[in-house]
Amino acid sequence: MINIAVFVSGGGTNCERLIQHFKGHNRYKIALVVSNKKDAPAIEKAERYGVKAVVMEKSKLNNPKEFLPLMTLYGIQFIVLAGFLPIIPDYLIEAYPNRIINLHPALLPKFGGKGMWGHHVHEAVKQSGDTQTGMTVHFVTSVCDGGQIIAQVKCDILPSDTVDDIASKEHELEMRHFPIITQEVLDKSFNSFLLQ
Fold this sequence. Notes:
By secondary structure, the chain is α/β, with parallel strands linked by helices. Helices cover 41% and strands 23% of the residues.
């Protein structure tokens, strides 16, 4: 069984979808949910499904002596960022090379980088006049939103769409496609997990 940690900062709708998708799977298990915010609704959602949830403030996340033992305790082999706002520290990227993926609510390389999260992204998309938006899944590197793109799914934007309309369209893509793309990444790496 490959143990997965999902990192979240907010509502946890993607986290919940991932838990639902992998529940009862014969290869993969969401073993841990990590949030940097103690009041994140994602914590309650995880616990409702019997998944251990922990709060790790940014200072603890940035301290390998505090954080890596937690990952070891739960046997974590793969990390999924699902609306996680803090920048992932270099030590964690080095400990999990090509084993951390992120969901970004735009078509990278546009609308990425520091400060580009949530509504900030959708507002930038609206202001750009682009006729499409979408979701990007990419590997996490030390360059914010700069890792290799794994998959992108697009949808059309109408001139009449508000920022909220754009956010809603993009979120629908996440709900439908993110768990499937995550499993595809895991399936491609499965044999290498067994060699760990």
